[in-house]
Amino acid sequence: MYNCSIPAFPIPMKLLPMRLLPVCVLSLLSVALLLTARDPSSKVYICRSGTSYAYHNRLCQGLRRCTHKIDTVTIEKAVQTGHRKACGYCYR
Length: 92
Prior knowledge:
Number of strands: 4
Strand content: 15-25%
Radius of gyration: 20 Å
Strand order of the largest sheet: 1-3
Structural class: alpha+beta
Number of helices: 3
Largest sheet: 2 strands, antiparallel
Shape: elongated
């Protein structure tokens, strides 16, 4: 059985059988998706201005520009109140 994790030393691609390459790529993509998934019950910060549209996971440069009240809510509640996307600074 082949190990898809990144070894301590690089293995040339020609040594990895081509039929296992898609399995390794899909495995790595699955792990990446799991690590970036956001739980709808997670707490986030939102700016209560009329023009804000993103939720934040920390006090980033986008949230620092907020001149209105900053609230802590769940992602689900943030989406319901019009903050439909994640902040580009917080969630890179």
